Amino acid sequence: MSDSQPQPPRHLVHAPRQQRGVERQDALIRAGLRLTETRNWDEVKVGDIAAEIGCSAGNFYTRFRSKADYFDVLVGLVVDAMQARSDAFFEAPQRAEEGPLEFMDRWVSLALNSFITHRGLYATAVIELRRQPPEVAAASPLLRLRDRNRARFVDAMARWPRWRGAAARARLDFAHQLLQGILINAALTDPGPLRLDDPKLHAELVTVLSEYLGLREARD
User: Fold this and answer.
1) Bridge partner residues of 13 (DSSP)
2) In terms of domains, do 129 and 190 share one?
3) Could you give the percent of the chain with pLDDT greater than 70?
4) Where are the beta strands (DSSP E) in the chain?
5) Is residue 36 a contact partner of residue 44, using CB atoms and an 8 Å limit?
6) SS3 of 9, please?
7) pLDDT in tens, 96-140
8) Per-residue CA distances from 176 to 61, 125, 147, 157 (Å)
């Protein structure tokens, strides 16, 4: 993190008074993000996070009020990063030059890479979301990310006349749900036969979604 990057909400951290404290806080956040690339959150202990940067568990608690607050900081920063990548994708000049199949291929790649990179954190966040009362869950940054990206996907597909109107939107909404459902299931249980990091998963997802939406027929 840097001054140009989002800072953790003040109610979740002990605000550092000196630059050294800011640097330690940022290092702890980066350590958590690294650890949850390959491990589920329940497996990560405060001591593991502290050890990643060579400090003590006591030092951890000088920066974060609790492990739960620290987790909320990580989720918020990951959601912000995923949203920034998504916005950059949809706004890139290349989108105007693609056909529907090319767009589908790159859209699936964007979603899959995000899940692979943040698998452990994302899986725990989904589980925690299911435990929340509906009114609390409704304010989740994960759901905000999901809904915004679904809207952007639908808007992007509406560049082509075939994907305008209520019926087309309903099919696009379900295509988004299919992709999200498969990736969430993979993040939670990785059941196979194609696991989350299997290169073949990308191709199969593109095939399934393209055939459901009739994109191959359109190209042919």
Assistant:
1) 64
2) yes
3) 88
4) none
5) yes
6) coil
7) 999 999 999 999 999 999 998 888 888 888 888 888 888 888 888
8) 40, 19, 10, 12
Most confident of 2-11, 23-32, 79-88: 79-88
| Dist. CA 61–CA 10, nearest whole Å | 15
Domain check: are 80 and 142 in the same one? yes
- Token pair 């950059």 in the structure block, residue: 88
* Integer Cα distance of 199 and 97 in angstroms: 25
93 vs 119: CA distance, rounded Å = 29
CA 214 to chain centre: 27
- Residue range of the domain that includes 37: 10-63
What's this model's pTM, rounded to 2 decimal places? 0.81
In this structure, are 193 and 129 located in the same domain?
Answer: yes
Cα(40)–Cα(58) distance, rounded to whole angstroms?
23
Is residue 167 left, alpha or beta, with left meaning phi > 0 and alpha meaning psi from -120 to 50? alpha
Please tell me the total number of residues recorded for the chain in this structure: 220
- Kindly report, residue by residue over 183-214, the tens digit of the pLDDT: 999 988 888 899 998 999 999 999 999 999 99
